[in-house]
Specification:
Chain lengths: ~350, ~80
């Protein structure tokens, strides 16, 4: 909607400007009505620009406070421009129109700076979101590789590819961070253009790494498919919901959510991100509370999670006890959380 | 007596053959299920990847449009 409106407004602005410039050589200059049209189309294009960025902010991953700040800044410019549009329609002389044009030009240089600041912030937040998703996909893929390894499959190449994937992810994150620094340094109309261009350059570099990441990921997935089709006993379980999940098996488990998480693994490893408190249990397991992500891999995995927003992806073989409100999928079948689910071979 | 024994052997062979066929039939869907499961896992990542790639291109297009705001002039 905002996109179409913007494109229409820009098209009308360009043709009004072309017409206006063409008539500047006329004996008494362009007629007043042509000047009025030119001003109206320019203001409309400015308003469409503001609306475009505002709409992006609305659907963005910015926090409520960040969004409110963007709206506050942009809306005051939009109000000013709407008022000037009204004045343009009511103006009777060339002099009055020229005066309004000067006021609009001055205000637009500030609005343009704030549009760049807002757009940069929105773009950085979107790329960060993509990178977070990419990191999560990397974790899930890692657990599938671990499950293949447990099944006796040679995973050297897959691990190498995963390392490449993560290297690009890290490089993309660095560039995005640099872009964020450039955009947040936009504080004056004079430096806005330069800083915006520099920030964009960093984001372009980040995009280059993102593309390499995606290419590598495609290769990893292709090889994982081959491996998983070759070895026997490797299955997958995907479960999502609120309640209790108990997984016992061999391979790899990826989990995210909040609540209590208890983990024990006989031969393998665990990596947790974000969980806060830790307590040891007599059976050697550790219980974490809070929220975050967990990767558990190896033989003799025991994982119990109790909480909300739980997302579990297990690869290899094992059983999952699911109780609460949620859904699961495994080996072409699925259902709701109401008991034991088996995945992979015995 | 020998005829009965031969008939019994034939019957057992036939039963074995049928059982073999049946278990073969059962194995086939299992393999199919496994292939499907592997495919599903892959497809889930593929779909996610597609949407992330699309989003990454959208950002580029959006920033291009914002840069166009520099083209808006009021030189009269």
């Amino acid at each position: 909607m905002a996109q179409e409106k913007y494109q229409r407004a820009m098209q009308m602005y360009r043709s009004a400007r072309q017409e206006y410039m063409g008539s500047r050589g006329m004996f008494r200059g362009p007629p007043v009505d042509m000047l009025r049209q030119m001003l109206l189309r320019t203001i409309d294009a400015m308003l469409a620009h503001i609306e475009l960025v505002r709409a992006r902010a609305e659907s963005s991953t910015l926090t409520v406070e960040e969004k409110a700040e963007v709206y506050r800044r942009l809306d005051s410019h939009a109000e000013f421009l709407k008022q000037k549009r009204q004045e343009v329609q009511e103006a009777e002389t060339r002099g009055e129109l020229m005066q309004i044009a000067r006021e609009v030009r001055g205000r637009w240089s500030v609005a343009r700076m704030e549009l760049k600041l807002a757009a940069g912030t929105i773009a950085v937040s979107r790329v960060e979101y993509i990178l977070d998703r990419g990191e999560e996909i990397g974790d899930r893929v890692e657990m599938r590789i671990k499950a293949l390894e447990q099944a006796g499959y040679s995973t050297g190449e897959l691990e190498e590819l995963l390392a490449q994937y993560r290297m690009h992810l890290s490089a993309a994150r660095n560039e995005t961070e640099l872009a964020g620094q450039k955009f947040s340094a936009i504080t004056s109309p004079a430096s806005a253009g330069r800083l915006f261009r520099e920030g964009r350059e960093n984001l372009r570099e980040a995009q280059v790494h993102l593309r390499s990441m995606f290419r590598t990921l495609r290769e990893i997935i292709e090889r994982l498919r081959q491996g998983e089709a070759e070895v026997s006993g490797v299955g997958h379980l995907y479960a999502r919901g609120n309640g209790t999940v108990v997984i016992q098996g061999t391979g790899g488990v990826y989990l995210r959510g909040s609540g209590n998480l208890t983990v024990r693994v006989e031969r393998g490893g665990t990596k947790l991100t974000g969980w806060s408190r830790v307590a040891g249990n007599p059976d050697g397991s550790l219980t974490y509370t809070g929220s975050g992500r967990a990767k558990v891999y190896g033989r003799g995995i025991y994982l119990r999670a109790e909480g909300e927003g739980l997302v579990v992806r297990a690869s290899g073989r094992g059983t999952a006890l699911l109780r609460g409100d949620g859904t699961w999928r495994a080996s072409g079948t699925g259902g709701s959380w109401s008991g034991e689910v088996r995945y992979g071979g015995r | 007596m020998a005829g009965r024994l031969a008939a019994l052997v034939c019957l057992l062979l036939l039963a074995g053959l049928l059982a073999g066929c049946t278990s073969g039939e059962k194995r086939q869907p299992k393999q199919e299920v496994k292939r499907q499961a592997v495919q599903e896992q892959g497809d889930a990542v593929d779909a996610e990847l597609e949407s992330l790639m699309q989003e990454s291109s959208d950002i580029e297009a959006f920033l291009n449009q914002v840069e166009e705001s520099d083209a808006l002039e009021l030189e009269l």
